[in-house]
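Notes to self after the call with IL:
- keep both proteins in one doc
- input above output, always
- annotate only the second one for now

Protein 1:
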Amino acid sequence: MKLNQQNKNRLMPLVMAVCVVVGIIIGSFFSNHFGGTRLSIINSGSNRLNNLLHIIDDQYVDPVNIDSLVDKAIPQILAELDPHSVYISAKDVAQANDDLKGSFSGVGIEFTIRQDTIHVQNVIKNGPAERAGILAGDKIVMVDGKKFVGKQVTNEEAMHRLKGPKDTKVKIGVLRYGSNAIKTFTVTRGEIPTKSITACYMLDDHTGYIKIKNWGETTYPELLIALAKLSQSGFSNLVIDLRDNGGGYLESAVQIANEFLPNNKLIVYTQGRKSPRKEYRSNGEGSYQKVPLVVLINEASASASEIFAGAMQDNDRATIIGRRSFGKGLVQQQIAFPDGSMIRLTVARYYTPSGRCIQKPYTMGDDKDYEQDLLDRYEHGEFFNADSIKHTGPAYHTSIGRVVYGGGGITPDIFVAEDTLGMTSYFKEAVMSGLILQYAFTYTDDNRPKLNNFKEMMELSDYLQKQNLVEQFADYGDKNGLQRRNLLIEKSHRLLERYINGRIIYNMLDDEAFTEYANQDDPVIKKAMEVMDNHAAWPKKPAPKKAAPAAKKGLGAKQGVTHKR
């Protein structure tokens, strides 16, 4: 009996070892076949992070704000993935979504901060501030009975104080031109529309122009209203300007692309490791399928702008004019956390109808090259010469056989170099220092009573043309640290005048007036008009390659054979 018991005791470690091995084998089988391995790795990592936070909270030498620590740590983790996966803290979520939602709750002003004071640049028509009596040019010096001037005046703090829930009130104290007394206005906050389409007008008797600033919730209905407005003017050709449009909602770009494409044309598709291919196609109900179309892009056109331009290009529906676009082809999904914060996590890639991914190359965990890309393009000469464009992806073909490239943005059908005529170091410094903006606002503020008489862009432009503002700016700049350099000023006179006058027109009128003024001598607009005039708004099928002449007899080659060189 004792012997049997001793034998059992000796065998017990072996039995236990066998059980452990079998358990590991069975566990490995199920984990490998049912995804448990990945989950255990994630759990292991998250446990370490949780344990670390608990240890810090419990044992660190000084008190630590764990929430703040997490807010700083999460962006670092996401930055290891790709340049567009980001974390947005709870306090910044509303601000991040406002531009795309189509509206926000606030007082309805556009402002700039100069000399630690808020200057009201524009008052939104029929908005809360206008109804309360606030005027463009007013300086906000008090909010809710407290002084609001000095170093505390930042863009973020101003937004925090002026924005708020609908129907709440805020008291705003202002200094008005010609008076030293503070005027106080009680403003009831309301819904303030944010427009995606900032300009819509006729370039000539036949050609309509629409500028889309971003792709938000209201972009599609705004476009339909803009097209209806142009229809009243009898447009038969259309230019859509997506320059400097950094993107937004995919759905808006798809809706608008649908207006211009015949039935069952692929607009874009998305695909990722855990995201099956999803296609977006036209339904044939678009009202503008036959309108000759030109789309303008540049190096700041990204994401949804590239989707729209790519769809028009690959379906041979429009001529794309400008410079190579940014190259953002990653799809982000918004995932909210219980505390109100959220992440935008990359879950798939965008592909144009021809199958090209427009995402430019990036290195995981290293954003330096990615952020440097536009500067590298500039220094490489890509902004000035189409032959300098470096394509990192293979060649694809449009519906009629034209060659297009992926791997780094949309390359336009017609390249237009950046306009550098008159560019000097003086002009660059005047712009980069912000002195032109400051001067333009100061001039506007000082001359507002006179400038209020001009309601149209052209009449205000004609008036400003006669005021010799470049000379006045040179004096202003000289007094504020920008040394007068007469030869360079003369060389850049046209650029300086256009920039100064444009900003004053924007201050006194609106975005559309500013855009219309800037477009008057824009080489990209000029090229678009040439395309329309030449009836070349739609891409043409490539001409078939001519067969090479047959090799002559007696030269060591068979007749009819073409030799590649």
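Protein 2 (the one to annotate):
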Amino acid sequence: MRMKHLTVAALTLWLSVSCSQRQEDFPFRNPDLPIDERIDDLLKRLTAEEKVGQMMNTTPAIERLGIPEYDWWNEALHGVARAGKATVFPQAIAMAATFDDDALHETFTMVSDEARAKYHQYQRDKEYDRYKGLTFWTPNINIFRDPRWGRGMETYGEDPYLTERMGIAVVKGLQGDDPKYFKTHACAKHYAVHSGPEWNRHEFDVTVTPRDLWQTYLPAFEALVKEGNVQEVMCAYNRYQGKPCCSSDKLLIDILRNSWGYEDIILSDCGAINDFWQRDERTPRHETHPDAESASADAVLNGTDLECGNSYRALVKALKDGKISEQDLDVSLRRLLKGRFELGMFDPDERVPYAQIPYSVVESPEHVAQALEMAHKSMVLLKNKNNTLPLSKTIRKIAVVGPNAADSTMLWANYNGFPTHTVTILEGIRNKVPDAEIIYELGCNHAADFVIQDLGNNITSTAGQGFASEFFNNTEFKGEAAYKGLANQLHYTTGGNTQFAPNVNLTNFTARFTGEFEAPETEQVEIKISGNDAFRLFVGDEKVAEVWENEYGAEKTYILNAEKGKKYPVKIEYMQRTGSADLNFQIGTRRPVDFAATATKVKDADVIVYVGGISPRLEGEEMPVNVEGFKKGDRTNIEIPKVQQEMVKALKATGKPVVYVLCTGSALALNWEDANIDAILN
């Protein structure tokens, strides 16, 4: 009877505490029970709709059970990716060049240390969104069969045996060696026979001989399953023998589950189930199924437990239509829940040894030193005529030329984290020989026959030097911004599905960038903007470029007749609806590449270091790139772009020794360079 006298606030508190206690008493919360019993208990508490929700990468919270939301999608290709500060190790193809699987295991033990430290901090801060979990979709153990494939940089090369050994080292480093808990999950991807091309991966039907299948493409996957005990396998976009890989009974049931005895999680590549049924004028797809219900049911029945995407929402209708049963869902859910229990997600931190790893390990001096060591081991000296290298530390004058010399983000590759500081190659040379005179010239860009004298430093805003940025998680610029900040350079891409900014959606978002450009001279200034979806460009009060409404992606150029000292307000609005997002903005004056002028400026140096090759802005995952020699992230040939060939020839004509520092994620033809350049360092 005394409850009548409780205040509303006190009653609410009593109910909250009582509810919390009841949640803690659920058997699935008891870490001392066998996992099978815990799974049984949790399964019987879930509705059919809740079960479906737990089979997509973005799983919603189940508040009545005290279960927070969780996103299975996390990346760690060469360090914890897309989740703020992390140690960025060399790209996978570079670490493969070390041929040191012990060092790679040590590296990924460090990566999983950072992953655990970041995860538990996010849990304390109640941040449950993407890239903040423990299930990492790494490593990529596809075979780099065609050197033109843009994603080959993510692999360990063309050798099945090397790929197998490196892949196992990564898996064991990520998953740890605790007898009860996995440190994180690793994931063998993309299964199977997936080596590009990028531009038609959503419709491509692979043709491969049985011998090639079993001797080239499958050995690494088999080794990671049997020897590595990998906890997740991601099925690929492409088809095999006419069936999409994520519904292939041959690949998933006959080989993976029955022949190899794999009992753990299979997940789809992102949007792969959509490719079964979706019709898209821009991107041709498999179109093997009539609708999302049929596609989703077929994928689950053939072993795909978890979807990265949203087609599995249709499983609710598929249940009602009798295309799949709730018992079929339970088969997949048992694997998914087992994975979460074995990661300790439902247990107190004091029971999970990995929860004690301090946040101070993130980008710690020891980890940075290991990244440097792996970089040292990855470099390959391809040529060294007359012992040109190493250069003498007493050298007086060095000229550094080329598009990769002063480019920091080129060094990050793709699927990357964010280091607090990046030492460019130019900066590294200056640090190594502080008493020498260092001359730097861009010379040329990667592939264009002109250079833009960048005037981006002449843009300022209320946020500082650069654009003030605002991001909204809707397509109408409504409400409070999800993120505000300073954008020094507008070169954004979600190739590989990277966020534009923290807490910003991958799709269905808008962004606004505002600043003021002060013209340094009276001249024509070229303003170029491109995007993969919709954008508007305003200079002053005038809208000078627009791709909006039902339009998709384009490149627009506006010529501003600028007057010296005059200030011009600049505003960019961007909208991303579906697919990969991309926005690039450049302001400057166009100049044709002047090979002779560059050579003249550097001809008095004792040695010329040319830092060229290509860039992750040209090669990578399904990119909006279509310039000569490149197509949608892939390359159409293996030649170094012509403009760079001509630049190097002009430098060689000075008669001075030329050292070629080649930055690339894939093979490049070096016929002329091999015959004529003094030293080549890959």
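Annotation: The radius of gyration is 27 Å. Residues 31-361 form a domain with the TIM Barrel fold (CATH 3.20.20.300).
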